[in-house]
Each structure stands twice: as C-alpha cells, then as structure tokens.
Amino acid sequence: MVGELVELLQLPFIQRMFIAGFLASISCGIIGSYVVVKRIVFVSGGIAHATFGGIGFAYYLQFMLGWMWFDPLVGALIFALIAAIILGSPLMRNRIREDSTIGVLWVVGMALGILFIHAVDRSKILVQDPVSILFGNILLIKLQDLYLMVGLVIAIIFITILLYKDLQILTFDEEFARIAGVNVNAMNILLLVLVAFTTVVLIKVVGVVLVIAMLTIPAAISGLFTHNLKMMMILAVFVGVITTFGGSLLSLNYDFPPGATIVILMGCVFVVSLLGKSINQRICLVKTE
Amino acid sequence: MGTKSAIEITGLTAGYGKELVIQDVNLCVEDGDFFGIIGPNGGGKTTLLKVMLGLLKPMKGDIRIYGESPETGRRYIGYVPQYAEYDKVYPISVRDVVLMGRRSVRGPSPWYSNEDKKAAMNALETVKMKDFKDRHISMLSGGQRQRVFVARALVSQPRILLLDEPTASVDQTMQENLYKFFKELNKEITIILVTHDIGVISSYVTRVACLNRYMFTHDEKLITKEMLEASYHCPVDIIAHGVPHRVLGEHQKKKKS
Predict the structure, then answer these.
(1) Does A37 contact B90 at a Cβ distance shorter than 8 Å?
(2) Chain B residues within 8 A of A229 when measuring between CB atoms
(3) Superfamily covering domain A2-288
(4) Which residues of chain B have a CB within 8 Å of the CB of A166?
(5) Cα–Cα distance between A235 and A238 in angstroms, integer?
(6) ipTM of this predicted complex?
(7) Contact state of B55 with A169 under an 8 Å Cβ cutoff
(8) Which of A31, A254, B3, B208 sits in a 20 to 30 Å window from A212, CA-based?
C-alpha cells in the first residue's frame, strides 16, 4: 500500500493533484471562513457559477480569434471579478434586492457558458467536457493552471494578512466598521474579489458547481471547534487538506469522479463533527448536573 | 467663543428618500452632560443617531460635534449600538471585540500594537470585565455583553459616549447596575442616552429631551407633562398619568435640596 503510494507520487499528474489540492485548501480555509462568518455563501455561489460563462467565453475566443493563450481559467477569473464587482457595488445593492442579482448572475453565467461552448467547433478546439468543468477533475490539472493558482493563493494570503483587522471588523459589524473609518464599500468589493480569486483556484479541483462546498464545509467544520477567527482559518485549511487528499485518493482507487468524492467526504466529516460535538456537549451537561 | 458645546444641532431635518423622519430639530448638549433623549419607537431616535455619527446626511440644518462636522467630529464619539444588532456566533473573544475600537485611533494598520492591547485591557478594567477577556461573546449575559461594547466605545478615548437603548434585553437588576455604572462614567465623559424607557432615565440623567419627529426640550431634567404630551400625543395618559408624572417632579425637587 505504502509502496503503491510512493510509486503514484512519482507521476507528474499525481504531484500536480496534490499541489492543487493543497492550494485549494489554503484559499478555501482562509476565504471560506470569511464567507461563513459573513453569511455570504450564496453571494459566493453567484460568483462561482458566473465563471462558467467565462470558461465558455475563453473557448469561444480561442475558436473565433485563434487566441490560444486565452486560457479558460483566465476567462473564469475575468467573469468572477465582474460578478464580484456587480454584487459588491453599493449602487446595485441599493437598487436591486441582493438575492435577485445573485439569481441573475448565477443562471446567466451558466447559460452563457453553454451557448459559447455550443458555438465552438470541437473538432478544431480542444474543449474540456462540460461535466468535468462543472464537477471538476483534480486529475486533469496542467502545469500552467498551477502557476495561476499559486499566484492567486499568494495574493489571497498577502491581502488577508495586510487587511486582517479591517476584514474582521467588516465581517463582524458593518455599521461599526463605517464609524471606525473603514471604507466599507471598498472592503465589501475587495472581500468578493478575494472570493472570486478563491473560486478560480477551486474550479479545477471540484468544478464550478461544487465550489460552494469547498468554500463552506471546511470553514463550517472548523467553526464548530473554535471561537477564534484565525484558528478557524488554520483548522479549515487542515480539514481541507485532509478531505481533498483523502477524496482524491479514494477516487483514484475506486475510479469515482474526483470532485464529487471530495465533496461527499467533506459532507461526511461535517455530519460526524456535528454529531461528535453535540454528543460531547450532552456529556458535559450530564457531568455538570 | 470659549468652550464649544459637545453637540450642537440647529434646524436639523433628516430622513430617507422623500420621507422626513425628523424635522427642525434643535439640540445643545454641553460638555459633561448626561443627556437623555426619549421618544416612542419610530420617533426618529435612530435617524438622529445616524446623523450624529455621519452615517446619514442631513437634508437641512447643521450639526456640530465640538465645532466639527460629523464626518470628522465622530472621532470624539464612542458609540454603543443596540444589543440585538451584532452576530452572536461570530468567532471572536471579548478582548478582540474591544480591540476593534482602536481602529479609529490606529488607522488601517495590519495588526494591533501593544499600546492598543494595553488600552483594551484598561477599558475592560473600567467596565469590570477583565476576567472575561478570553471568553467568546456568546458566553456572556446581556449585561456583560453590554459592558464589553461600552469598553469597545471607551477604548478610543472618546469625549462623548453615545448609548442606543443600552438596557434592552437586560434584566431589571442588571439595568440598575448599568445605569449606576453610566452615572459613574459620566464624571469623566459626556453621555448621550437614547431610549424609549422613561421610567429609568429620569433618575440618572441631568438633562432630557423628547423626540417624536420634532424635538421637545426643557432646560432642566424635568420631563414635563407638556413635553410628553407633545411627543407622545395621546398615550401620555398611559405612560405618565398620575404617579409616574408626579414622581418625576418630586424627584427633581429632592435633588435640589
């Protein structure tokens, strides 16, 4: 078993799988914690699904203009950023109900993706199977993808460290943040831009549809066990690493779809943690009585 | 001009869109006052607070905080929001909540300095919550939590403490303790207390005003029947009829003697 694993680790695509899983866990641990405590899971869902349009758009440009350098992940990043700015902008937030904006971005993004991909002649351009775009395939990661992912993760870590204090105030108490001199409008957009970065990092690992799972579940699990935002982030990264690696290895071993396997594993860990925590609380209650 | 008033409001009209919530409000809070603003729910108390904090632009009139506009003058104000408005499951300790109050002093630095941490501990000492510094905010009683948020306001060393319904969802004994504590704080700091609770306010404040769209003031802390009638319209009978009204008046005389 160990010998097999060592042998596997020699394979470049397996190495890339582990690196990508690690990068995804870092970004979803940090930004997922903000998403969970600020309760913007569905805002993030809107951003995540809008990226599908960007991926289709990139393939379309490759096909129509021959821009082969225009990678699908770059298209995803551009669409995610546009969605983040639209959702974060106070002009939109004051005029339109936030969940309506989310709904529009969510479905229009998906529909655009399908239309663009449909318009591409697949005998000329190599298009990734839409199912694997939506549900991810951590085994299909290119070296070029890793470069972009590393860049985004570095940006996420750097910005979070630099603005940790203000992001904490913003996510805890927006009105107080405003009084304390935090530029709330800019920070709200910035937080969604960080979510957009994270989404792009996660797409390759779990796919467009399952991004929400990675943004939410590890942070939700770690939130059960700590009352400190920094600890919550660190623990969430740890949970992310264990579940992505575990899920990837399971999917390799049994030939399951990797994205879905990772997410199911996360879901199981969440349920077990929840049960474990409530049983533990019961025991404590009985003891104190 | 001598010393400036803590807060001076002249002819203030404010609201949202076309809807006017407060109209032609005049108010002068002097340095050292314990000023009570009372009024029914929906009477414009929150709107007035928002204008004072520079969160809402007035439509008409002027507001000065120690002679400055709300945008710059709000650094003199320590604001304690209503009990119900924050997220109780947010992963944060008592000390970290108090530290947030240093943001307005420190500016956008990546982390808090030792000086900030010392100030936070001092503020917790003042509100007698030092022993709870590592507690999660969900594991506090209503009164304790209120003290923590007072500490967050005090940590920026404000000259005015602005309290919005500080005793909502706090039990009766704790309410009295809190008011005594505010009275104690008032020795060093101007306090503005906004509430709909007339009963408690009268025995602690030095001056009072009633707000219900218009502001009704009185030079002394006495709440007159006319003020109440004007601000509450008909419900005065229920709120201030008979005993409570007389108690307010007598109390005032006792203090003077």
Answers:
(1) yes
(2) 91-92
(3) ABC transporter involved in vitamin B12 uptake, BtuC (1.10.3470.10)
(4) 103, 108
(5) 5
(6) 0.84
(7) no
(8) A254
